[in-house]
Recover the amino acids of this structure.
């Protein structure tokens, strides 16, 4: 008899031997074979890891680098170099196996994206993640000298193929205490697969042995030459790579615009947005602002593209290269020394709209074919602003050409890439024909953006902050100088009234919270870098630059700027470099006391958050002056932050244009005493021209004198009084009777354009807090009664004699009138809109009133008005018109339309561009009828929104900021806490700070409602009784 394992045995006898089935034997055999194969594979990989890698070179290039960044390109790099033999696709089969370190690492269960990463992909322990993130702010043992980049985007497959050769040198400033053999070449990468790599000595051109691996989360590629840095000398690192052509408007990305000439009605383009840290998404590089180098760039693309541009001028081309015979390689001249975030290229079917003739540099404007005429205004403006800036900076524009490109889908308003400035269409294009002419407000906005980007060609491009913690050094200066340039070229625009209304008030709003940050603070992570691009860096940066200009004087300030740019051109600087130069010029001009220096003054403004409120207590001619940090929700004596403050005080009897003395409020003191020459019945005011970055409070008697003499005060001081009064009442420094008195004073002077500008912005917070409260009816009654005379005076129709400011002022008054429900305004708005609906080709709505009329008509209308407006959004080729309609679509009070609109912001099929999604969301979130709907949408779709928009443009942060504006009840806080918890569970580090700020905003709103709401209600009711206003 046989057993089940095949052994013979006799009943009642013990079986002998070991028993094993055939199946078991087979299984063990397979396992042993797999173990043997794995062992051999690991041994092979270890051997290869020690070997030097050879790579396929893009072309043969000389190893010397031009010492002068402006050296003629053709002396260094010929225009007919042989391209890489095959700019390969992702699917191409590489037969040269000896050129690769090892096979591609396959996908694993932690991250499928690892399949993208190539040779030497040794995965570091995840515990290194924090160290890798902090590496952003650390120095490097190697510095780039020159990049030779050939790059080929494939828009159909969202793939980039490229080769880059980076000439590098040892960093002589590297920490001497470090092990000289432990300084790898650290290249920044993000979703880049390295296909091959070779390291050569620049001196001998011999190959250098090395080992290479990816850093934590594949965000760096580390190459460790076997030789020490000193022994290795200058090196050439040659890499072949593959990366992604993104859809998130970051890095090198793709997009399309409508084009009837294309078979599918779409014309694709590929463009770049590398600032702040996204060059690493396109090619391996030292992606840090202090790692400047020169760049020789070539773009491979289909030869049917109408335009291909980069930072420098085109110098040659080669046909029949790349993936197919109909491809061409465009070669561009070598750039000056510059940072990677300023590198740019674009290939598309955009058209040349404007080109300068007989003007240096050559200025070109590029747009879609249908809107070429809309580039004329910016072209004319640029040719006026460039010579002004060259004179102001005491230094010429350094490149031979300047391209301004209206990119059909673009994340920021604009980007200052050196020689190739890219814009969102609405920030560059200005319709000037009768049917679609732009509003004065839009024209000013476009001019401001263009002037800002032109100023960057010096502040930021020529001289670059060493690290992102000093971002304000370029953004604050560019913002301030853009106003100087426009004020000189458009004198009737009164640009510094706009500066006070826009930049200064924006900075104050964002700098009033406990969770605000200093202008300059440690920046260690990608989230830190993206977060610092905010009004603190831009608007507050500009405000403190203006303050410096004021106390140093224009001559000393400009001399300092000239020396700063001359000394650090093509290099990097930190704020201390600027302080030293400005101190010397201030002492030389005797505008700065010898016992003070700019560093000790300005570090109180750049290294700590917030700003002071200066309180004046007057006793005849004797002043007691105190400083305290302005903080919401209420004045707080426990915060002991102090500043060096340049005080200017003006008495009523002081003659116009008389030089003002600067009284320095010491950093060490909370209170000082001053004796001034003034009569007891005279008024005085402080902070002339609102040049200082601080608010001013007065004793009650002084407030009364100023309100009684309001019309006698200078324009900027009138703006300051209105803004300060509302904000001081909000923080409980004064009561609301003072700002309400100013409402009456300002609205009686309907031609006081500066004061109206301040009033319209100051009313926003009160309106947000009261729009869903019982007392809102009282506020409406007061505002209707006070606004009606001004509305009747300015009217609905533009006049031929209207100035730029007149048109902006009419827009402001009419907007307030319609918003607060003056019947005549609403009726006229709807009449004009319905007339347009009868013939959409004939829009007779005045350009300056479109925003108000569209919004009012959709608010008071229904589905037909909404659908008509959305159809106009789809059909118009005016980018500014699109933005106005996007805002108006969020004005409806129909819940289902608002929900539909929000869902369209995350649907590519809706026709709403990614660049415009935030605008649409904000329009709903700031609508009292849409606030809760917007919050629910954000809560339910936060993961989808983050995936759709990416993390490059603070999209989620902007949504969070807007959705909390109307939240002022305890249950709002509870709802937001649940949202914050969900965001944390999803792991979204880029919005951590936004959530903190939003929580503080809600708590401040709750505090205001509990403390100030009833006080304001009382004053409003009393005002109605005293002035006999009609409640209805």
């Amino acid at each position: 008899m046989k057993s089940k394992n095949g052994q013979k045995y006799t009943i009642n006898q013990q079986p002998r031997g070991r028993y094993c089935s055939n199946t078991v034997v087979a299984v063990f055999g397979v396992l042993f074979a797999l173990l043997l194969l794995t062992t051999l594979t690991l041994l092979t990989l270890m051997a290869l890891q020690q070997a030097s890698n050879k790579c396929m070179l893009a072309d043969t290039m000389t190893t010397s680098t031009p010492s002068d960044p402006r050296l003629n390109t053709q002396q260094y790099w010929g225009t007919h170099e042989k391209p890489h033999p095959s700019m390969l696709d992702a699917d191409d089969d590489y037969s040269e196996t000896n050129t690769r370190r090892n096979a591609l690492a396959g996908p694993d269960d932690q991250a499928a994206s690892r399949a993208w990463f190539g040779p030497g992909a040794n995965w570091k322990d995840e515990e290194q993640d924090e160290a890798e993130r902090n590496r952003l702010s650390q120095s490097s043992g190697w510095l780039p000298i020159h990049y030779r980049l050939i790059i080929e985007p494939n828009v159909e497959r969202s793939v980039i193929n490229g080769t880059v050769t980076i000439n590098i040198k040892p960093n002589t400033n590297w920490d001497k205490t470090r092990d000289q053999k432990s300084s790898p070449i650290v290249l920044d990468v993000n979703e880049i697969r390295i296909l091959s790599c070779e390291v050569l000595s620049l001196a001998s051109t011999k190959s250098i042995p090395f080992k290479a691996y990816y850093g934590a989360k594949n965000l760096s590629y580390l190459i460790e030459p076997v030789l020490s840095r000193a022994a290795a000398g200058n090196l050439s690192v040659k890499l072949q790579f593959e990366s992604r052509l993104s859809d998130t408007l970051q890095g090198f990305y793709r997009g399309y615009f409508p084009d009837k000439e294309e078979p599918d009605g779409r014309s694709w383009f590929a463009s770049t947005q590398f600032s702040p840290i996204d060059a690493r998404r396109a090619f391996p590089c030292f992606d840090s602002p202090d790692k400047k180098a020169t760049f020789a760039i070539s773009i491979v693309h289909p030869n049917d593209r109408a335009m291909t541009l980069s930072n420098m001028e085109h110098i040659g081309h080669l046909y029949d290269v790349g993936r197919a015979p109909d491809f061409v390689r465009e070669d561009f001249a070598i750039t000056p020394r510059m940072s990677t975030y300023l590198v740019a290229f674009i290939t598309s079917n955009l058209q040349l709209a404007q080109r300068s003739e007989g003007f240096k540099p050559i200025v070109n404007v590029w747009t879609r074919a249908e809107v070429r005429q809309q580039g004329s205004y910016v072209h004319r403006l640029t040719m006026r602003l460039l010579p002004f800036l060259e004179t102001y900076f005491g230094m010429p524009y350094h490149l031979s050409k300047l391209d301004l490109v209206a990119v059909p889908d673009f994340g920021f308003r604009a980007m200052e890439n050196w020689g190739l400035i890219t814009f969102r269409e609405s920030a560059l294009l200005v319709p000037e024909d009768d049917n679609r002419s732009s509003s004065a407000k839009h024209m000013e906005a476009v001019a401001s953006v263009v002037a800002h980007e032109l100023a960057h060609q010096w502040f930021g491009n020529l001289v670059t902050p060493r690290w992102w913690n000093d971002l304000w050094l370029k953004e604050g200066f560019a913002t301030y100088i853009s106003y100087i340039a426009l004020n000189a070229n458009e004198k009737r625009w009164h640009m510094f009234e706009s500066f006070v209304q826009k930049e200064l008030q924006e900075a104050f709003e964002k700098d009033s919270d406990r969770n605000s940050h200093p202008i300059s603070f440690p920046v260690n992570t990608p989230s830190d870098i993206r977060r610092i691009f905010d009004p603190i860096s831009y608007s507050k940066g500009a405000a403190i630059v203006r303050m410096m200009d004021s106390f140093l004087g224009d001559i000393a300030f400009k001399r300092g700027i000239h020396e700063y740019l001359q000394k650090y051109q093509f290099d990097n600087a930190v704020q201390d470099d600027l302080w030293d130069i400005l101190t010397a010029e201030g002492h030389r001009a005797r505008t700065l006391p010898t016992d003070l220096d700019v560093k000790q003054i300005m570090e109180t403004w750049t290294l700590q958050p917030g700003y002071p409120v200066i309180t004046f207590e007057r006793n005849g001619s004797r002043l007691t002056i105190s400083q305290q940090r302005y903080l919401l929700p209420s004045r707080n004596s426990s915060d002991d932050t102090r500043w060096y403050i340049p005080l200017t005080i003006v008495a009523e009897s002081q003659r116009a244009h008389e030089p003002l003395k600067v009284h320095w409020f010491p950093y060490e003191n909370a209170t000082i005493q001053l004796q001034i020459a003034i009569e007891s019945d005279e008024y005085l005011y402080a902070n002339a021209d609102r040049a200082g970055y601080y608010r001013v409070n007065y004793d009650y008697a002084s407030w009364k004198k100023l309100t009684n003499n309001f019309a006698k005060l200078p324009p900027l001081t009138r703006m300051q009084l209105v803004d300060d009064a509302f904000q001081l009442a909000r923080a409980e420094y004064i009561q609301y009777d003072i700002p309400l008195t100013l409402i009456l004073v300002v609205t009686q002077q309907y031609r006081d354009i500066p004061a109206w500008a301040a009033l319209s912005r100051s009313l926003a917070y009160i309106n947000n807090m009261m729009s869903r409260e019982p007392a809102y009816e009282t506020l409406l009654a007061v505002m209707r009664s006070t606004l009606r005379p001004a509305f009747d005076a300015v009217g609905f129709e533009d006049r031929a004699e209207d100035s730029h400011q007149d048109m902006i002022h009419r827009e402001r008054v009419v907007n307030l009138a319609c918003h607060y429900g003056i019947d005549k305004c609403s009726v006229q708005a709807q009449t004009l809109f319905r007339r347009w609906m009868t013939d959409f080709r004939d829009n007779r709505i005045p350009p300056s009133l479109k925003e108000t009329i569209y919004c009012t008509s959709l608010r008071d209308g229904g589905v037909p008005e909404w659908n008509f407006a959305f159809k106009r959004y789809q059909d118009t080729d005016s980018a500014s018109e699109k933005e106005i309609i996007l805002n108006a679509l969020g004005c409806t009070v129909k819940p289902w339309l608002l929900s539909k609109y929000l869902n369209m912001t995350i649907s590519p099929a809706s026709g709403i561009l990614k660049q415009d999604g935030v605008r649409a969301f904000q329009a709903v979130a700031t609508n009292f009828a849409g606030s809760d709907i917007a919050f629910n949408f954000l809560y339910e779709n936060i993961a989808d929104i983050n995936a759709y928009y990416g993390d490059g443009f603070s999209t989620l942060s902007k949504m969070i900021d807007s959705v909390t504006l109307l939240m002022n009840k305890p249950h709002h806080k509870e709802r937001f806490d649940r949202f914050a918890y969900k965001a944390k569970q999803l792991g979204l580090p880029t919005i951590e700070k936004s959530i903190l700020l939003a929580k503080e905003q809600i708590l401040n709103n709750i505090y205001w409602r509990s403390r100030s709401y009833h006080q304001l209600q009382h004053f409003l009711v009393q005002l109605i009784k005293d002035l006999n206003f009609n409640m209805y």
Observations:
- The longest strand covers residues 142-154.
- Residues 22-49 form the longest helix (28 residues).
- The radius of gyration is 32 Å.
